[in-house]
Amino acid sequence: MIKSKKLFICQSCGSVYSRWIGKCEQCNQWNTIVEENISKPSGILSKSKGKEINFEKLNDVNYDYIRVKTKNNELDRVIGGGFVPGSVTLIGGEPGIGKSTLLLQLVGNLSNQKEKCIYVSGEESLSQIKMRADRIGVKNVEIEFASITNASDIAITINSKKKRCVLVIDSIQTMYLTQLDSSPGTVSQVRACAHELILAAKKTSTILILVGHLTKDGAIAGPKVLEHMVDTVLYFEGDNNFQYRILRSVKNRFGANNEIGVFEMHENGLKEIVNPSAMFLADRQKNISGSAIFAGLEGTRPILVEIQALVTQSTLSTPRRVIVGWDISRLAMLCAVLEARCKIHLSNMDIFLNIAGGIRLSEPAADLAVAAALISSVRDIPLSFTSIFFGEIGLSGEIRKVNQPELRIKEASKLGFNKINLPTKQKIIINENMSYNNLSILSDLVELIDKDNTD
Ligand SMILES: Nc1ncnc2c1ncn2[C@@H]1O[C@H](COP(=O)(O)OP(=O)(O)O)[C@@H](O)[C@H]1O
Ligand SMILES: [Mg+2]
Ligand SMILES: [Zn+2]
After folding, report:
1. Ligand 1 atom 23: residue of nearest CA
2. Does 87 contact ligand 1 (Cβ within 6 A)?
């Protein structure tokens, strides 16, 4: 008989509690704790009792390390140049963001390259999948589809096919093992199903791709509870108000972290965006104060984004700080430095800061561009239309070096920017058509903006 006991598990991060509480102490999410019956998983592959093992010498180990390219450049870059056979990839994202669309296109591509592809959907019927495939033009008849939710059946099927394949599970939260009492989507089911499928994939060198829904209400276990079990974790992000979607790698055993791929959602599927900077800057207006271009870096990829600031006299006792796409405490710090070191008074001003296009920046290198946008708005002086900024700002107002300045400058040059504002002593490859302003302290920036900025 299977022993089972009741435990309370956070569906967002997987923390275990002995009693119910309203807010998870680990991840601070509300109402994510759910009572689960925990029984010992006894799936097909984890049934065996202990036995002696044989060790092997690394010299005797061979690997099948030819990456399987997807022929989708954005996706290939994010996963580090193609899928590694036997690797497990988790794609997380909110419902409706486009995970199923992306993966259907992916199996379409791979199947055209004679990879054996299996697409298992626990959410949609075969006719729904067919409708999507027709809409986005995935025609390959070789892809095998199934609309099932029993993880052991899938694992057994994969094991029985001795040859490697590409297996998509859409989504892991709909899968279940009959041996467990808890319902599909709970932490214990999600983990046990993933475990079963991963074992089967590793054994057969199958490229396993798991879809994980991200929900804010904690109704189902989030992809976070699986992150440590898989090789690669990708998040598919985007804003419903915009057509573009960003695929970001947050963990990758076979490539760089934080690499991004940019796509655009159309009626006929996801299109790669070859030049995201051009897209983010498409709606920029000339001669507007408070707008500065930041030459940022996402993973190994340079991206130019527009930072917009609006600073106005406040009528409130606590002035407003409204910020989209950047860190609010970073802004508070920057305002304090501007106030203390440059005598730019912001404490009685409302500040609105927006990263245009809906992208989220996390690099400290954006400090200089944000400061430039703020000063430009306070002074009501538009910045030069062809200038870019990057540099981190310290508490004493010093402008610090950032990594990979060459990459940032090259991207700027490609898009016609020719005035580079960067930290002093930042090593650069001088391009004759460009002018460089090396700034060492924040007051240098104020001085620069106060000078004539016309192009
Ligand atoms: N007929 C359509 N025309 C244009 N876009 C569509 C159409 N049908 C669906 N979409 C887009 O596809 C998205 C759903 O993609 P899907 O791959 O099912 O998401 P997920 O699997 O992440 O839940 C919708 O949010 C919408 O943007
Ligand atoms: Mg889907
Ligand atoms: Zn939690």
Report:
1. 96
2. no
The answer to whether residues 320 and 250 belong to one domain is: no
Tell me, using a 6 A CB cutoff, whether residue 173 lines ligand 1.
no
Distance 144 CA to ligand 1 centre (A): 21
Ligand 3: centre distance to CA 331 (Å): 28
* pLDDT tens digit sequence for 348-367: 999 999 998 778 888 999 99
Core vs surface per residue 421-433: b (16+ CB within 10 A) or e: bbbeebeeeeeee
Looking at the fold, whether 192 and 326 belong to one and the same domain comes out as no
CATH number at residue 431: 3.30.230.10
Q: What is the pLDDT of residues 70-114, one digit of tens each?
A: 989 999 999 999 999 999 999 999 899 999 999 999 999 999 999
Residues 369, 438 within the same domain: yes
Written as one string, the DSSP assignment of 301-350 is EEEEEEEEEEEEE--SSS--EEEESS-HHHHHHHHHHHHHHH----TTEE
